[in-house]
Amino acid sequence: MAGHSRMDRVSEEFREVLAEEIPKLKDPRIGFVTVTGVTVSPDLRRATVFYTVLGEESDRRATAAALRSARSRLRSEVGRQVRLRFLPELEFEEDDAVERGSRVEEILERLHREEGGSGDDDG
Q: How far apart are the first and last CA of the chain?
């Protein structure tokens, strides 16, 4: 379906522009942000930007607030670089998939250590 591939292309263009522009923001609240993906609504009116950020909960909250306040500037930059009839509203959502993956990895490592190293303790 042609429409689907166009949305994928638009999403990827948005991701590239935002991944380049977010680090340029001068807001000290913004931590180390990685844009993991963008989904654009079928009517191209809304784009949800998924991102990860390193740090504690307070750092993540500060980054979320900074991204919200920079929304119009980032939207303008996307509009400048991506030619569309309508410029979608940007919504930012922290992507917790990386965090979930890290937790799974930690659990697997711990299980592996327990099986290998301390198996003798179980009697």
A: 61
